[in-house]
């Protein structure tokens, strides 16, 4: 969709008469509205922002452009939850349009200080020549939920050596000091992350670039996030400009992490291992984490990608967030499990089991558009086995394990309305295991797949017709024992 600058950089109150009603009508009649994912009321959603536990509730904001399904004047939209499973829409959190966020309240994060929730975000501005001038701003939410913007930036310039692609502050505290990482681009056109520190969240000093081995790894790193897990330092980020390599980096943009020694806050040095992708599906980007009330590290991502079109664009809305996932580290690798609170979404359940031998089978009661499905395959000698879901006469999404290549394969070529086919319709990832457990969360237009308790995750939008509700289990070239449970959501 091509929209003019004037159309993109409009605020809500600049909607022409009837425009919002038209968008809302389109949304109401959309066949692909989600039922238990955070999605925009209308308009476009992108990155999760400001994810924080504050006064007994999780607050989670997202980037929102209300007046169309393209990227324009970004607001922060506010949602909250007591249990990470059920979310309430609160409304606009941060409204752009002031001197230091004239062209959007871009991504950022939250931290609790002195009983208030501090939200640090990038103010996007453009001058008359359309040059960007990014500012890092603060907005403070009090216990009544009122959010007040501080009227001046807390970081008002880009240090020498970096371009105006300088954004997405993620704040944390350590030993009584505050730190934040920002996504940046060096003047030589490569991406990196920089570090700032502060005593009070208002005055920040530049500590330098986080020094990593990845000195030439894409042209921009967006949405960095740093935290420690099990005594290890983890840096998440979304690098842009990485070329596909075998099964890796197949999407237009990537998201992943490096793990190593805790970040040295004096030298800004991070000793680390290889870059690893967080998600092996088609639609995942710009994730953000927070610490849960009990210390668990919880991640939420944008179930979408920059510069991608989706079939809901013609229905007045675009994109949603992923379900919250708990992160753990095992042997230098992040494992991601759906947070246990999601069990609260389970309604009536059914079970089924069979020894499959060169056949495709369904179990009684296994069907639907919105459910959680757990399926274990054991005693396998079949060459391939797996699940077809959101299946009908002509449509199916196929998740399988190929024992010869030892790969998990997600095929959305017959999933329904085609999406981003120029980037391929199959995703594969290597996994060496005897037994395979698939846990799927299926919503009207998405699937999140956790393989072997989150060793690998595939997150994808799919756009099947409403008639495609079947679920079938299969084994080819041998046998596989299959035991499945399904809960409607
Ligand atoms: C990532 C991103 C961020 C930016 C925001 C704008 O998707 O480009 O870098 O802050 O989206 O909406």
Automatic annotation (TrEMBL):
Keyword terms: Carbohydrate metabolism, Cytoplasm, Glycosidase, Hydrolase
Domain Glycosyl hydrolase family 32 C-terminal intervals: 341-481
Domain of life per record: Bacteria
Residues annotated as domain Glycosyl hydrolase family 32 N-terminal: 37-338
UniProt catalytic activity: Hydrolysis of terminal non-reducing beta-D-fructofuranoside residues in beta-D-fructofuranosides
Root EC class: hydrolase
Name of one Pfam family that matches: Glyco_hydro_32N
Pathway participation: Glycan biosynthesis; sucrose metabolism
InterPro entries: ConA-like_dom_sf, GH32_Enzymes, Glyco_hydro_32, Glyco_hydro_32_AS, Glyco_hydro_32_C, Glyco_hydro_32_N, Glyco_hydro_beta-prop_sf, Suc6P_hydrolase
Subcellular location: Cytoplasm
NCBIfam families: scrB_fam (TIGR01322)
Job description of the protein: Enables the bacterium to metabolize sucrose as a sole carbon source.
Listed name of the protein: Sucrose-6-phosphate hydrolase
């Amino acid at each position: 969709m091509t929209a003019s600058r004037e159309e993109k950089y409009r605020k809500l109150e600049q909607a022409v008469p009837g425009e919002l009603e038209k968008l809302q009508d389109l949304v109401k009649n959309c066949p692909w509205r989600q039922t238990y994912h955070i999605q925009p009321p209308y308009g476009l959603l992108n990155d999760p922002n400001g994810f924080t536990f504050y006064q007994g509730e999780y607050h989670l904001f997202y980037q929102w452009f209300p007046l169309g399904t393209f990227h324009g004047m970004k607001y922060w939209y506010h949602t909250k939850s007591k249990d990470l499973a059920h979310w309430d829409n609160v409304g606009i959190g941060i409204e752009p349009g002031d001197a230091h966020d004239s062209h959007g309240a871009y991504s950022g994060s939250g931290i609790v200080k002195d009983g208030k929730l501090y939200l640090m975000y990038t103010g996007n501005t453009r001058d008359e020549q359309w040059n960007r001038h990014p500012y890092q701003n603060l907005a403070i939410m009090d216990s009544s939920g009122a959010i007040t913007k501080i009227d001046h930036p807390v970081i008002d310039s880009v240090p020498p050596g970096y371009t105006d692609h300088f954004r997405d502050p993620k704040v944390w505290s350590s030993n009584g000091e505050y730190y934040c990482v920002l996504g940046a681009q060096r003047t030589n056109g490569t991406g990196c992350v920089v570090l700032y520190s502060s005593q009070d969240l208002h005055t920040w000093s530049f500590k330098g670039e986080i020094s990593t081995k990845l000195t030439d790894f894409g042209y921009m790193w967006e949405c960095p996030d740093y935290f420690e897990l099990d005594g290890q330092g983890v840096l998440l980020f979304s690098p842009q400009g990485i070329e596909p390599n075998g099964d890796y980096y197949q999407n237009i943009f990537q998201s992943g992490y490096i793990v190593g020694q805790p970040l040295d806050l004096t030298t800004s040095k991070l000793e680390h291992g290889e870059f690893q992708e967080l998600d092996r599906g088609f639609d995942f980007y710009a994730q953000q984490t927070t610490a849960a009330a009990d210390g668990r590290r919880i991640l939420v991502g944008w179930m979408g990608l920059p510069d991608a079109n989706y079939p809901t664009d013609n229905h007045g809305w675009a994109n949603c967030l992923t379900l919250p996932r708990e992160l753990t580290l095992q042997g230098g690798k992040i494992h991601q499990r759906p947070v246990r609170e999601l069990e609260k979404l389970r309604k009536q359940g059914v079970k089924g089991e069979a020894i499959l031998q060169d056949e495709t089978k369904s179990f009684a009661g296994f069907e639907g558009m919105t459910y959680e499905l757990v399926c274990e395959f054991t005693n396998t000698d079949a060459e391939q086995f797996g699940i077809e879901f959101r299946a009908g006469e002509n449509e199916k999404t196929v998740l399988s394990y190929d024992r010869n290549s030892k790969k998990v394969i997600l095929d959305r070529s017959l999933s329904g309305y085609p999406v981003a086919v120029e980037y391929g319709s199959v995703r594969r990832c290597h996994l060496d295991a005897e037994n395979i457990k698939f846990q799927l969360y299926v919503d009207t237009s998405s699937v999140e797949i956790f393989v072997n308790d989150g060793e690998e995750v595939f997150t994808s939008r799919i756009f099947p017709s409403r008639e495609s509700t079947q679920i079938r289990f299969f084994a080819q070239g041998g046998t596989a024992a299959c035991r499945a449970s399904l809960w409607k959501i």
